[in-house]
């Protein structure tokens, strides 16, 4: 690439540098971005999350999110994912 010197004037992420060195289009479908996609919430999971929230929101002295995570049937959800989904709902 004869114009690579122009690209070197701007800050690059590691993924962009890899794409420059290996050829444009070498990163397919967000590969190499360093972040895996979060699986989407199914309607059944959303309903279960609502039910668990209403069940544990009134409990005094207990962390609501911790209680939800302990009883959530879908394993692998993080605290941040649960909080973000509750805010969205």
Automatic annotation (TrEMBL):
GO biological process: DNA repair; DNA replication checkpoint signaling; replication fork arrest
Molecular function (Gene Ontology), one example: DNA binding
Stretch list, region Disordered: 22-42
GO cellular component entries: replication fork protection complex
Pfam families linked: HTH_TIMELESS (PF26019)
Record PANTHER family: PROTEIN TIMELESS HOMOLOG, TIMEOUT/TIMELESS-2
Protein name: TIM protein
